[in-house]
Amino acid sequence: MFDGTIGELIEQLGRLPGVGPKSAQRIAFFVLQNPNYDPRDLADVLASIRERVRFCDTCGMLATDTECDICQDVRRDETVLCVVEEAKDVWAIERTREYRGRYHVLGGALSPIDGIGPDQLRIRELMARLGNSAITEVIIATDPNLEGEATASYLSRMLEQPGLTVSRLASGLPVGGDLEYADEVTLGRAFAGRRSV
Amino acid sequence: MFDGTIGELIEQLGRLPGVGPKSAQRIAFFVLQNPNYDPRDLADVLASIRERVRFCDTCGMLATDTECDICQDVRRDETVLCVVEEAKDVWAIERTREYRGRYHVLGGALSPIDGIGPDQLRIRELMARLGNSAITEVIIATDPNLEGEATASYLSRMLEQPGLTVSRLASGLPVGGDLEYADEVTLGRAFAGRRSV
Fold first, then answer.
1. Hey, which of A71, A97, A120, A182 would disulfide with A187, CB 3.0 to 4.6 Å?
2. In the CATH hierarchy, which top-level class contains the domain A4-52?
3. ipTM of the complex
4. A88: distance to nearest CA of chain B, Å?
5. Which of A18, A28, A37 is nearest to B91 (CA)?
6. Bigger pLDDT: B133 vs B153
């Protein structure tokens, strides 16, 4: 149905998440024919993106330097730390514009069935950060599902220490859902209504 | 919110049609972190696609050779020709698997307000194809809108010649649709084009 390279383009576009066969054809047509679009711009970024992106030494967020932009930003509140599972959760929280503190990216959630225990997550790094810093509050923002809740309870026990407030995002997020897909208002409300654990 | 190259990737992905800000972030995360995905495959195709794709000398379809796969396919019926506006219309018709004839891509529809007259479309090429070929039926499959209808009437006048059947795709209610929500024009067409059962 599609000539050589065109078929390859449509197939490659169809591998992206959320892009079905029809969307892939629509995007391919745009890429091929839109006079205001140069596909080489996207090609350039894609060609080198994996080499150019690393993890922030401090928080574990995706970064293009040894530290990510958020960790480098001196205007962010150093006393509050928000613990999330994945880099995409940081993006979701940043979209709410409700939170001005720092982040810590665990790199996943506890899931014994998948062989992910505390040592597979960046929990040791989290404890080290708390040891010598101005952090007075930790907000646990793991996903509101089974693994996320398990991780939250584990962390809340680990973080029990004098002078440190530990909170969990307020329920209001649909249970069984995925933090990444929460709308900005709901996620913002969840931040505002966080309660100590 | 996004570090250098990551922000650039998200911005570039967001320029694709049908990809909103959230989808762009989701795709970016996949591109950055999915272990089974190599973004260089898509990068390679995008980098050279415009140079590698041309228009089929015969039908005007997007092709990677002087003739497209459909024109080269000897199993296709040479006696029927389907005239469409754009390459993506060929893809849409091919998806139905109902049609086994040939195509002719006009490259648009008549639209005096946009300065598109018969000379801007591949109508001369269409007439030349009809002159020396086995074609006995032409199906006009332009879009069912103002420009498409105007193009269809123009073509049907141009194509009046002995031994050549000219038809237009049926207008009517979409299958699986709801009569209650059909617009007046579509419903009117469905009445006018009613067939005995």
1. A182
2. mainly alpha
3. 0.79
4. 7
5. A28
6. B153
Strands (DSSP E) found in A136-191: 137-140, 165-168
Helix (H, G, I), strand (E, B) or coil at A12: helix
> Number of Cβ pairs closer than 8 Å across A and B?
157
User: What is the predicted pLDDT for the residue at A168?
Assistant: 87
Helix (H, G, I), strand (E, B) or coil at A29: helix
Give the type of residue at A94: E
How is chain A split among helix, strand and coil, in percent rounded to 5?
45, 15, 40
**pLDDT at position B49:** 92
Classified by CATH at the fold level, domain B74-168 comes out as Dna Topoisomerase Vi A Subunit; Chain: A, domain 2 (3.40.1360)
A89 touches chain B (CB under 8 A): no
What is the identity of the amino acid at A56?
A: C
Neighbours of B45 (CB within 10 A): 23
Per residue in B178-187, pLDDT (tens digit) is: 878 878 888 8
The answer to whether B50 faces chain A, any CB pair under 8 Å, is yes
The class of domain A69-196 in CATH terms is alpha beta
The rounded distance, in Å, linking the Cα atoms of A65 and A53 is: 8
Q: Does A52 touch chain B (CB under 8 A)?
A: yes
